[in-house]
Amino acid sequence: MSKRVLITGGAGFIGHNLCRRMLAEGYEVGVIDNEFTGRREDVPGECAYLKGDIRNTGDLAKAFDPAPDVVFHVAAQASNIRSFGDPRLDIDVNIQGTINVVNACVERGVPKLVYAGSMTEYGLMDRLPVNEDAPLRPISYYGISKTAAEHFVLSTTRRPDLTAPFSATVFRMFNVYGPGQSLTNPYQGVLAIFIGQVLRGEPCTVDGDGTQSRDFVYIDDVTRAWAAVAEPGVADGIAINLGSGARLSVNDLVREVCIVLGHDPKAYPIEKRPLRPGINCIRKRISRAPAMSSAGRRKSVSRTASRAPSRGRKKRAGRPPDVALVRHEKPTDEPPGIPPVFFRSAER
Ligand SMILES: NC(=O)c1ccc[n+]([C@@H]2O[C@H](COP(=O)([O-])OP(=O)(O)OC[C@H]3O[C@@H](n4cnc5c(N)ncnc54)[C@H](O)[C@@H]3O)[C@@H](O)[C@H]2O)c1
Fold it and tell me: Ligand 1 center to residue 271 CA distance, Å?
Protein backbone atom coordinates (compact mmCIF):
# COMPACT_ATOMS: atom_id res chain seq x y z
CA MET A 1 0.00 0.00 0.00
CA SER A 2 1.35 3.42 -0.89
CA LYS A 3 2.24 5.91 1.81
CA ARG A 4 0.26 9.09 2.32
CA VAL A 5 1.60 12.63 2.67
CA LEU A 6 -0.54 15.57 3.76
CA ILE A 7 0.72 18.90 2.41
CA THR A 8 -0.59 22.00 4.17
CA GLY A 9 -0.43 24.99 1.80
CA GLY A 10 -0.28 22.53 -1.11
CA ALA A 11 -1.83 25.04 -3.52
CA GLY A 12 1.01 27.58 -3.13
CA PHE A 13 4.27 27.89 -5.04
CA ILE A 14 6.38 25.43 -3.03
CA GLY A 15 3.34 23.36 -2.00
CA HIS A 16 2.08 22.44 -5.46
CA ASN A 17 5.60 21.59 -6.62
CA LEU A 18 5.85 19.28 -3.59
CA CYS A 19 2.54 17.67 -4.63
CA ARG A 20 4.05 16.82 -8.02
CA ARG A 21 7.26 15.49 -6.51
CA MET A 22 5.49 13.26 -3.99
CA LEU A 23 3.07 11.86 -6.58
CA ALA A 24 6.10 10.98 -8.71
CA GLU A 25 7.63 9.26 -5.67
CA GLY A 26 4.54 7.05 -5.44
CA TYR A 27 2.80 8.72 -2.48
CA GLU A 28 -0.89 9.40 -2.10
CA VAL A 29 -1.09 13.15 -1.63
CA GLY A 30 -3.61 15.11 0.41
CA VAL A 31 -3.76 18.91 0.45
CA ILE A 32 -5.31 21.43 2.83
CA ASP A 33 -5.19 25.04 1.65
CA ASN A 34 -7.43 28.05 2.28
CA GLU A 35 -6.38 29.63 -1.07
CA PHE A 36 -5.12 32.77 0.64
CA THR A 37 -2.38 33.01 -2.00
CA GLY A 38 -2.53 29.49 -3.44
CA ARG A 39 -4.61 28.47 -6.45
CA ARG A 40 -6.56 25.25 -6.54
CA GLU A 41 -5.97 24.88 -10.29
CA ASP A 42 -2.23 24.48 -9.63
CA VAL A 43 -2.83 21.35 -7.52
CA PRO A 44 -2.54 18.14 -9.58
CA GLY A 45 -5.90 16.43 -10.06
CA GLU A 46 -4.69 13.18 -8.44
CA CYS A 47 -4.43 14.88 -5.04
CA ALA A 48 -7.20 14.69 -2.43
CA TYR A 49 -7.98 18.39 -2.01
CA LEU A 50 -9.62 20.11 0.95
CA LYS A 51 -10.26 23.84 0.94
CA GLY A 52 -9.66 24.43 4.62
CA ASP A 53 -7.79 26.52 7.15
CA ILE A 54 -5.03 25.39 9.52
CA ARG A 55 -6.39 27.85 12.10
CA ASN A 56 -9.53 25.72 12.25
CA THR A 57 -9.06 22.43 14.14
CA GLY A 58 -12.26 21.03 12.56
CA ASP A 59 -10.76 21.50 9.07
CA LEU A 60 -7.55 19.86 10.23
CA ALA A 61 -9.46 16.87 11.64
CA LYS A 62 -10.93 16.31 8.15
CA ALA A 63 -7.53 16.68 6.46
CA PHE A 64 -5.97 14.19 8.90
CA ASP A 65 -8.61 11.54 8.16
CA PRO A 66 -7.16 9.04 7.32
CA ALA A 67 -3.97 9.80 9.26
CA PRO A 68 -1.04 10.44 6.90
CA ASP A 69 2.39 8.82 7.25
CA VAL A 70 4.07 12.20 6.96
CA VAL A 71 2.96 15.84 7.04
CA PHE A 72 4.70 18.55 5.00
CA HIS A 73 3.75 21.75 6.82
CA VAL A 74 4.14 24.45 4.19
CA ALA A 75 1.09 26.69 4.78
CA ALA A 76 1.91 30.16 6.04
CA GLN A 77 1.51 33.84 5.57
CA ALA A 78 4.79 33.95 3.61
CA SER A 79 5.54 37.64 3.15
CA ASN A 80 7.97 39.72 5.19
CA ILE A 81 6.39 42.96 4.03
CA ARG A 82 2.82 41.93 4.72
CA SER A 83 3.79 40.88 8.25
CA PHE A 84 4.49 44.48 9.23
CA GLY A 85 1.00 45.56 8.20
CA ASP A 86 -0.84 42.69 9.89
CA PRO A 87 1.28 40.91 12.51
CA ARG A 88 -1.83 39.28 13.99
CA LEU A 89 -2.14 37.18 10.83
CA ASP A 90 1.39 35.81 11.31
CA ILE A 91 0.62 34.97 14.93
CA ASP A 92 -2.63 33.22 14.01
CA VAL A 93 -1.50 31.37 10.88
CA ASN A 94 2.24 30.88 11.27
CA ILE A 95 2.40 30.27 15.02
CA GLN A 96 -1.04 29.06 16.17
CA GLY A 97 -1.65 27.30 12.83
CA THR A 98 1.64 25.41 13.26
CA ILE A 99 0.74 24.45 16.83
CA ASN A 100 -2.60 23.12 15.51
CA VAL A 101 -0.82 21.05 12.85
CA VAL A 102 1.71 19.69 15.37
CA ASN A 103 -1.11 18.80 17.80
CA ALA A 104 -3.00 17.03 15.05
CA CYS A 105 0.14 14.97 14.28
CA VAL A 106 0.54 14.04 17.94
CA GLU A 107 -3.15 13.16 18.39
CA ARG A 108 -3.22 11.05 15.22
CA GLY A 109 0.14 9.35 15.82
CA VAL A 110 1.76 10.82 12.67
CA PRO A 111 5.43 9.83 13.02
CA LYS A 112 7.03 12.58 10.90
CA LEU A 113 6.55 16.26 10.13
CA VAL A 114 8.66 18.44 7.84
CA TYR A 115 8.40 22.18 8.48
CA ALA A 116 9.03 25.06 6.07
CA GLY A 117 11.42 27.28 8.01
CA SER A 118 13.05 30.36 6.56
CA MET A 119 16.42 32.11 6.31
CA THR A 120 14.63 35.14 7.78
CA GLU A 121 14.94 33.37 11.13
CA TYR A 122 18.60 34.44 11.16
CA GLY A 123 17.81 38.14 10.68
CA LEU A 124 20.96 40.22 10.27
CA MET A 125 23.76 37.77 9.66
CA ASP A 126 27.17 38.48 11.18
CA ARG A 127 28.96 36.18 8.78
CA LEU A 128 28.33 34.53 5.43
CA PRO A 129 27.81 31.73 4.82
CA VAL A 130 25.55 31.41 7.83
CA ASN A 131 25.56 28.00 9.49
CA GLU A 132 22.70 26.37 11.35
CA ASP A 133 24.23 27.09 14.75
CA ALA A 134 24.21 30.87 14.14
CA PRO A 135 21.97 32.81 16.52
CA LEU A 136 18.36 33.31 15.43
CA ARG A 137 17.69 37.05 15.61
CA PRO A 138 14.82 37.70 13.17
CA ILE A 139 14.13 41.30 12.27
CA SER A 140 10.71 40.99 10.61
CA TYR A 141 7.48 39.97 12.30
CA TYR A 142 7.32 37.20 9.69
CA GLY A 143 10.79 35.96 10.70
CA ILE A 144 9.77 36.05 14.36
CA SER A 145 6.69 33.94 13.64
CA LYS A 146 8.68 31.39 11.59
CA THR A 147 11.25 31.13 14.41
CA ALA A 148 8.61 30.68 17.10
CA ALA A 149 6.89 27.98 15.05
CA GLU A 150 10.21 26.19 14.47
CA HIS A 151 10.74 26.10 18.24
CA PHE A 152 7.26 24.63 18.76
CA VAL A 153 7.93 21.94 16.16
CA LEU A 154 11.36 20.90 17.47
CA SER A 155 10.37 21.15 21.15
CA THR A 156 7.50 18.78 20.53
CA THR A 157 9.91 16.14 19.19
CA ARG A 158 11.64 16.26 22.60
CA ARG A 159 8.49 16.00 24.73
CA PRO A 160 8.93 13.16 27.21
CA ASP A 161 5.20 12.61 27.69
CA LEU A 162 4.33 11.49 24.14
CA THR A 163 3.07 7.93 23.86
CA ALA A 164 3.75 7.57 20.12
CA PRO A 165 6.99 8.49 18.32
CA PHE A 166 6.99 11.96 16.72
CA SER A 167 9.95 13.32 14.77
CA ALA A 168 10.44 16.42 12.66
CA THR A 169 12.87 18.07 10.25
CA VAL A 170 13.01 21.82 9.64
CA PHE A 171 14.28 23.27 6.38
CA ARG A 172 15.38 26.90 6.71
CA MET A 173 14.91 27.74 3.06
CA PHE A 174 16.65 30.60 1.25
CA ASN A 175 15.22 32.36 -1.85
CA VAL A 176 13.31 29.65 -3.67
CA TYR A 177 12.63 30.26 -7.37
CA GLY A 178 11.25 28.39 -10.34
CA PRO A 179 8.16 27.54 -12.35
CA GLY A 180 4.88 28.16 -10.61
CA GLN A 181 5.97 31.34 -8.86
CA SER A 182 3.48 34.17 -9.20
CA LEU A 183 4.65 37.00 -11.47
CA THR A 184 2.09 39.45 -10.14
CA ASN A 185 2.33 38.94 -6.38
CA PRO A 186 4.57 41.76 -5.12
CA TYR A 187 5.25 39.76 -1.96
CA GLN A 188 6.74 36.78 -3.74
CA GLY A 189 10.42 36.17 -4.55
CA VAL A 190 12.58 38.88 -6.07
CA LEU A 191 13.38 36.85 -9.22
CA ALA A 192 9.67 36.46 -10.05
CA ILE A 193 9.19 40.18 -9.38
CA PHE A 194 11.94 41.10 -11.88
CA ILE A 195 10.65 38.64 -14.51
CA GLY A 196 7.15 40.10 -14.13
CA GLN A 197 8.46 43.67 -14.40
CA VAL A 198 10.54 42.99 -17.51
CA LEU A 199 7.70 41.06 -19.21
CA ARG A 200 5.36 43.99 -18.53
CA GLY A 201 7.99 46.48 -19.72
CA GLU A 202 8.22 48.15 -16.28
CA PRO A 203 11.49 49.31 -14.70
CA CYS A 204 13.10 46.83 -12.30
CA THR A 205 12.85 48.09 -8.74
CA VAL A 206 16.05 47.46 -6.79
CA ASP A 207 16.37 48.18 -3.07
CA GLY A 208 19.63 49.96 -2.26
CA ASP A 209 22.50 49.88 -4.73
CA GLY A 210 21.86 46.25 -5.73
CA THR A 211 25.28 45.00 -4.62
CA GLN A 212 23.69 42.97 -1.80
CA SER A 213 23.76 39.27 -2.60
CA ARG A 214 21.29 36.46 -2.02
CA ASP A 215 21.26 32.68 -2.19
CA PHE A 216 18.76 31.46 -4.80
CA VAL A 217 17.73 27.84 -4.70
CA TYR A 218 15.83 26.11 -7.48
CA ILE A 219 12.43 24.62 -6.65
CA ASP A 220 13.37 21.11 -7.90
CA ASP A 221 16.35 21.03 -5.53
CA VAL A 222 13.99 22.05 -2.74
CA THR A 223 11.37 19.37 -3.45
CA ARG A 224 14.08 16.71 -3.82
CA ALA A 225 15.42 17.55 -0.36
CA TRP A 226 11.93 17.44 1.18
CA ALA A 227 11.25 14.03 -0.37
CA ALA A 228 14.57 12.77 1.00
CA VAL A 229 13.55 13.41 4.63
CA ALA A 230 9.95 12.17 4.43
CA GLU A 231 10.76 8.99 6.38
CA PRO A 232 11.30 9.00 10.14
CA GLY A 233 14.94 8.39 10.99
CA VAL A 234 16.29 10.81 8.36
CA ALA A 235 17.51 14.18 9.69
CA ASP A 236 15.20 13.95 12.70
CA GLY A 237 15.02 16.72 15.29
CA ILE A 238 17.18 19.25 13.45
CA ALA A 239 17.00 22.42 11.37
CA ILE A 240 18.89 22.40 8.06
CA ASN A 241 19.71 25.29 5.73
CA LEU A 242 18.28 24.71 2.28
CA GLY A 243 20.05 26.95 -0.22
CA SER A 244 22.24 26.52 -3.28
CA GLY A 245 25.41 27.56 -1.45
CA ALA A 246 26.12 30.20 -4.14
CA ARG A 247 25.45 33.91 -3.92
CA LEU A 248 24.33 36.32 -6.60
CA SER A 249 24.05 40.08 -6.33
CA VAL A 250 20.69 41.68 -7.06
CA ASN A 251 22.33 43.68 -9.89
CA ASP A 252 23.60 40.46 -11.51
CA LEU A 253 20.15 38.94 -11.16
CA VAL A 254 18.54 41.87 -13.00
CA ARG A 255 21.23 41.56 -15.67
CA GLU A 256 20.49 37.83 -16.13
CA VAL A 257 16.74 38.39 -16.36
CA CYS A 258 17.21 41.11 -19.00
CA ILE A 259 19.55 38.97 -21.12
CA VAL A 260 17.30 35.87 -21.00
CA LEU A 261 14.27 37.98 -21.94
CA GLY A 262 16.12 39.60 -24.86
CA HIS A 263 16.89 43.06 -23.43
CA ASP A 264 20.15 44.96 -23.25
CA PRO A 265 20.87 44.99 -19.50
CA LYS A 266 22.84 48.25 -19.80
CA ALA A 267 19.89 50.03 -21.39
CA TYR A 268 17.07 48.54 -19.29
CA PRO A 269 15.53 51.04 -16.83
CA ILE A 270 16.23 50.36 -13.18
CA GLU A 271 14.57 52.20 -10.31
CA LYS A 272 16.81 52.16 -7.25
CA ARG A 273 15.04 52.71 -3.94
CA PRO A 274 17.12 54.13 -1.10
CA LEU A 275 18.03 51.79 1.75
CA ARG A 276 19.61 54.53 3.88
CA PRO A 277 17.41 55.53 6.81
CA GLY A 278 15.32 58.58 6.05
CA ILE A 279 15.98 61.13 8.77
CA ASN A 280 13.42 63.76 7.77
CA CYS A 281 11.26 62.89 10.75
CA ILE A 282 13.97 63.45 13.37
CA ARG A 283 14.99 66.68 11.62
CA LYS A 284 11.42 67.95 11.72
CA ARG A 285 10.44 66.82 15.20
CA ILE A 286 13.59 67.10 17.33
CA SER A 287 15.67 70.24 17.62
CA ARG A 288 18.94 68.34 18.19
CA ALA A 289 18.91 66.10 15.14
CA PRO A 290 22.16 64.42 14.03
CA ALA A 291 24.24 66.99 12.16
CA MET A 292 27.72 65.50 11.80
CA SER A 293 28.84 63.52 8.79
CA SER A 294 32.40 63.49 7.43
CA ALA A 295 33.50 66.22 9.87
CA GLY A 296 32.29 63.98 12.71
CA ARG A 297 34.26 61.01 11.45
CA ARG A 298 37.46 63.06 11.19
CA LYS A 299 36.95 64.42 14.72
CA SER A 300 36.34 60.93 16.08
CA VAL A 301 39.48 59.50 14.46
CA SER A 302 41.67 62.33 15.79
CA ARG A 303 40.27 62.07 19.32
CA THR A 304 40.61 58.29 19.39
CA ALA A 305 44.15 58.51 18.16
CA SER A 306 45.13 61.17 20.70
CA ARG A 307 43.95 58.92 23.57
CA ALA A 308 45.95 55.93 22.36
CA PRO A 309 48.76 55.02 24.80
CA SER A 310 52.10 56.23 23.50
CA ARG A 311 53.99 53.07 24.64
CA GLY A 312 57.31 54.76 25.16
CA ARG A 313 57.01 57.22 22.32
CA LYS A 314 57.06 60.89 23.18
CA LYS A 315 53.78 62.69 22.53
CA ARG A 316 54.04 65.46 19.99
CA ALA A 317 52.58 68.55 21.59
CA GLY A 318 49.57 70.23 19.98
CA ARG A 319 48.82 67.56 17.40
CA PRO A 320 47.31 64.09 17.69
CA PRO A 321 49.61 61.27 16.68
CA ASP A 322 49.36 59.86 13.22
CA VAL A 323 46.68 57.13 13.26
CA ALA A 324 48.58 54.80 10.98
CA LEU A 325 51.58 54.96 13.32
CA VAL A 326 49.52 54.31 16.44
CA ARG A 327 48.00 51.28 14.81
CA HIS A 328 50.95 49.56 13.25
CA GLU A 329 54.21 50.71 14.83
CA LYS A 330 55.59 48.07 17.13
CA PRO A 331 57.02 49.77 20.23
CA THR A 332 60.57 48.87 21.14
CA ASP A 333 59.71 48.10 24.80
CA GLU A 334 56.91 45.64 23.99
CA PRO A 335 57.61 42.13 25.30
CA PRO A 336 57.60 39.54 22.51
CA GLY A 337 54.28 37.82 21.88
CA ILE A 338 51.98 40.66 22.94
CA PRO A 339 49.69 41.64 20.06
CA PRO A 340 49.62 45.27 18.95
CA VAL A 341 46.32 46.20 20.52
CA PHE A 342 46.74 49.93 21.12
CA PHE A 343 44.14 51.03 18.66
CA ARG A 344 41.55 48.61 19.99
CA SER A 345 42.15 49.50 23.61
CA ALA A 346 41.95 53.20 22.82
CA GLU A 347 38.52 52.67 21.33
CA ARG A 348 36.99 51.37 24.55
N1 LIG B 1 9.36 31.06 -1.33
C2 LIG B 1 10.45 31.18 -0.62
O3 LIG B 1 11.49 31.64 -1.10
C4 LIG B 1 10.46 30.71 0.82
C5 LIG B 1 11.66 30.81 1.53
C6 LIG B 1 11.68 30.38 2.85
C7 LIG B 1 10.55 29.84 3.42
N8 LIG B 1 9.39 29.77 2.73
C9 LIG B 1 8.23 29.17 3.38
O10 LIG B 1 7.72 28.17 2.51
C11 LIG B 1 6.32 28.10 2.63
C12 LIG B 1 5.66 28.24 1.27
O13 LIG B 1 6.02 29.46 0.69
P14 LIG B 1 5.57 29.86 -0.78
O15 LIG B 1 6.60 30.72 -1.34
O16 LIG B 1 5.15 28.64 -1.51
O17 LIG B 1 4.32 30.78 -0.45
P18 LIG B 1 2.82 30.70 -0.99
O19 LIG B 1 2.13 31.92 -0.47
O20 LIG B 1 2.81 30.46 -2.45
O21 LIG B 1 2.26 29.39 -0.25
C22 LIG B 1 1.63 29.40 1.00
C23 LIG B 1 0.38 28.56 0.89
O24 LIG B 1 -0.23 28.49 2.20
C25 LIG B 1 -1.63 28.70 2.02
N26 LIG B 1 -2.17 29.22 3.28
C27 LIG B 1 -1.94 30.44 3.84
N28 LIG B 1 -2.63 30.56 4.99
C29 LIG B 1 -3.28 29.38 5.19
C30 LIG B 1 -4.16 28.89 6.19
N31 LIG B 1 -4.51 29.66 7.25
N32 LIG B 1 -4.66 27.65 6.07
C33 LIG B 1 -4.34 26.88 4.98
N34 LIG B 1 -3.52 27.29 4.00
C35 LIG B 1 -2.99 28.53 4.10
C36 LIG B 1 -1.72 29.71 0.88
O37 LIG B 1 -3.00 29.77 0.28
C38 LIG B 1 -0.66 29.18 -0.05
O39 LIG B 1 -1.18 28.20 -0.91
C40 LIG B 1 5.91 29.14 3.64
O41 LIG B 1 5.81 28.50 4.91
C42 LIG B 1 7.07 30.10 3.64
O43 LIG B 1 7.18 30.74 4.89
C44 LIG B 1 9.32 30.21 1.43
Answer: 28
What is the topology classification, in CATH, of domain 4-174+217-244?
A: Rossmann fold (3.40.50)
pLDDT per position as a tens digit, 210-264: 998 889 999 999 999 999 999 999 999 999 999 999 999 999 999 999 999 999 9
Looking at ligand 1, which residue's alpha carbon is closest to its atom 21?
Answer: 12
User: Residue 328: pLDDT above 60?
Assistant: no
Q: Which residues are catalytic?
A: 142
**CA torsion angle 114 116 19 105 (round to 10):** 40
Q: SS3 for 301?
A: helix
Q: Tell me the CA distances in angstroms from 208 to 129, 266, 344, one per residue in order.
A: 21, 18, 31
Handedness of CA 329, 333, 336, 342 (dihedral sign): negative
Q: Hey, where are the domains in the chain?
A: 4-174+217-244, 303-347
